[in-house]
Amino acid sequence: MDVRDIVRRVEESEVFHAWESEHSSSFLAHIFVMAEKEDSFQLGYFHDERMHTFLLDGSVVTELGHDEILRTEWKLVP
Q1: What percent of the chain has pLDDT over 90?
Q2: I need a labelling partner for 3 at 20 to 30 A (CA). Which of 28, 34, 54, 71 fits?
Q3: Nearest to 53 by CA among 74, 71, 31, 78
Q4: Which candidate, 43, 47, 50, 51, places its Cα nearest to that of 15?
Q5: Cα separation of 5 and 18, whole Å?
Q6: Whole-number pLDDT of residue 57
Q7: In whole angstroms, what is the distance from residue 1 CA to residue 75 CA?
Q8: Given this model, what pLDDT does residue 71 score?
Q9: pLDDT tens digits for 36-73?
Q10: End-to-end CA, the chain
Q11: Rounded Cα–Cα distance for residues 67 and 32 (Å)
Q12: Model confidence at 11: pLDDT above 80
C-alpha cells in the first residue's frame, strides 16, 4: 500500500475528523509499519507537546490516545 493511501485513509476517517476538529494545528510526525500484519500501520500526529496516535488496521481506524513527548536538557555541540 502506498504511503499516501495510508495517510488518506486515516485522515478521511470519522475518528480522525472528530479529533482534528479540536487539534487543527497538528501535523503528521511518524508512520510505523506493524511487523505482525502487513496491512496495519500506526500514525502519530504532533500537537501541543504531545504525540497522538491512530492505528489503521486493514480498513479500520482506531484512536490510540496520546503520549507526552520526552524532553531532555542535553544539547548537541558541534
Answers
A1: 50
A2: 71
A3: 31
A4: 43
A5: 20
A6: 92
A7: 38
A8: 65
A9: 788 899 999 998 888 899 999 999 999 998 776 666 67
A10: 40
A11: 16
A12: yes
Question: H-helix or E-strand containing 17?
Answer: helix 14-20
What pLDDT, on a 0 to 100 scale, did the predictor assign at position 7? 94
36 neighbors 30 (Cβ within 8 angstroms): no
HEC letters along the chain: CCHHHHHHHHHCCHHHHHHHCCCCCCEEEEEEECCCCCCEEEEEEEECCEEEEEEEECCEEEEEEEEECCCCCCCCCC
The mean of the pLDDT values for the chain is 86
**In the numeric block, which cell numbers belong to residue 18?**
472528530
Phi, psi of 33 (to 5 degrees): -90, 125
